Amino acid sequence: MEKIIDENKQGESLVLEPKKENTRKLFIESYGCAMNFSDSEIVASIMAKEGFNTTQNLEDADLVLVNTCSIRDKAEQTVRKRLEKYNAVKRINPKMKVGVLGCMAERLKHKFLEEEKIVDLVVGPDAYKDLPNLITEVEDGRNAVNVTLSKDETYGDISPVRLNTNGVTALVSITRGCDNMCTFCVVPFTRGRERSRDPQSILEEINDLWDKGFKEITLLGQNVDSYLWYGGGLKKDFEKASELQKATCTSFSNLLEMCAKAQPKMRIRFSTSNPQDLTLDVIKTMAKFDNICNHIHLPVQSGSNRVLREMNRLHTREEYMALIDNIRKIIPNCAISQDMMVGFPTETEEDFQDTVSLMNYVKYNFGYMFTYSERPGTLAERKMTDDIPEETKKQRLADIVELQLKHSDIRTKEHLNTVVEVLIEKESKKSNKQWSGRTPQNIVAVFPKEHYKIGDFVKVKVNTCTSATLIGEAIGLAP
Ligand code: SAH
Ligand code: F3S
């Protein structure tokens, strides 16, 4: 249930291998999307060079950094509550400094310092390389702010330190920012314009991960299919590139192919796809390589053409359905998941029923569903009234969550009595005698440990299931 309602993880803290020469302690935690978790690994790497080891104890920290999310009002409230907790700790440890990173830092800028007295440091998503200077200012007793957005920062030259929870799966960031300007969304304002990372640096990172024993990577971007490398710079400036740059550019399907070939045994995932940017080439490349996982996270937000238009989603319901048909034709066993939003301004009961019927058409494997939350500065906030009553929003959300559960149930049951390939990630939460891993379709599977170990690819015969988990037994290592 939890997984279906909210994809955003809450406040996990990162801990790295301590370096002996480092004397100061950093407590870093992340809220929000996978990109924030990946960014925190970059930040931890920058801070390690500045003499900071990470700690899991807030009470021990010389410096606390919180990587924040602005996507919905609730996400911001969660961070504000967390700041209250830091405040309490600071009373015991007055030397502790507090910095805010990420989308809330970018959105609120200097205002953060006025609104939350506990905050010493405000750093936007493109300014992490300036952290060493900013920390020096803070240590000298001044507050510090850097929220400059960049045209070309991708942190491609920083080797992120990994959160070694399982040593099997890792996030690899490939684009930053978003140019799509969906009218409800704060991301283009907090993360700036879209730019892509040098494919060579991506390949180097993947090769390095494989050498360290990682078995699965997720290529990350706010709008991952829009990836385009033509030598650096903003995507919107591609028009101005030279003929040679245009002729030798790398698209997302090119990049996928390069990654799949570079490490043919590494599982490759990617997230998130905006339907308007997911091309047939990408789907065909997925079909061509066994190691690209058959799962597409394809948020649609609404099934109503009128609402899609108001949201500035640049495709129709019919085009989305045609895309789904193509995916199913080219990759018959491809899992498809959604993000859906209810209660967008002016959404009528009829619009909502269009969402329900689209869900019934696709029968997604799983999804993340939200009620509309008005975000300051977005086009929807400026041009529209948040006019759907809270009770209506909640009722519509409950309706689609229930529907999604039914669909997940149907989809998961399709695997009963089949053999699936599972990459073992960790011990099952429910039993220390069982392993837990995921299939290429991103479905969790649990089975008795026997002699298998974390990082093994195992063939699992599925005997039973819940709506989200396959339960079975291993019948051997996958070839
Ligand atoms: N491209 C992004 C998607 C944006 S945020 C990614 O990589 O994940 C994730 C989801 O949050 C969106 O798909 C949308 O369903 C939801 N969301 C975004 N803005 C929102 C808002 N103002 N209110 C409610 N939900 C929102
Ligand atoms: Fe937001 Fe739309 Fe981009 S949801 S992240 S503006 S694709």
Written overview of the protein:
- By secondary structure, the chain is of the alpha/beta class.
- It folds into 3 domains: 12-146, Methylthiotransferase, N-terminal domain (Rossmann fold), CATH 3.40.50; 169-411, pyruvate-formate lyase- activating enzyme (Alpha-Beta Horseshoe); 419-477, OB fold (Dihydrolipoamide Acetyltransferase, E2P) (Beta Barrel).
- The chain has helices at 2-5, 34-48, 73-92, 103-108, 111-115, 131-139, 187-191, 199-211, 243-247, 252-262, 280-288, 305-310, 317-330, 349-362, 379-383, 390-413; strands at 9-13, 24-32, 52-54, 63-68, 97-102, 121-123, 144-146, 169-173, 175-176, 195-196, 216-220, 228-229, 250-251, 267-271, 295-297, 335-342, 366-371, 419-427, 434-438, 444-448, 457-465, 469-477.
- The protein is globular.
- Bound molecules: S-adenosyl-L-homocysteine (SAH) and FE3-S4 cluster (F3S).
CATH homologous group name of the largest domain: tm_1862 like domain
- Rounded to an integer in angstroms, the radius of gyration calculated over CA atoms is 22 Å
CATH class of the largest domain: Alpha Beta
Number of domains: 3
Percent range for β-strand residues: 15-25%
Distance between the ends = 34 Å
Number of strands: 22
The name of the CATH architecture of the largest domain is Alpha-Beta Horseshoe
Q: Would you tell me the overall average pLDDT? A: 94
User: How many individual helices?
Assistant: 16
Which range best describes the helical content: under 10%, 10-25%, 25-40%, 40-55%, 55-70% or over 70%? 25-40%
> Could you please say which CATH topology of the largest domain applies here?
pyruvate-formate lyase- activating enzyme
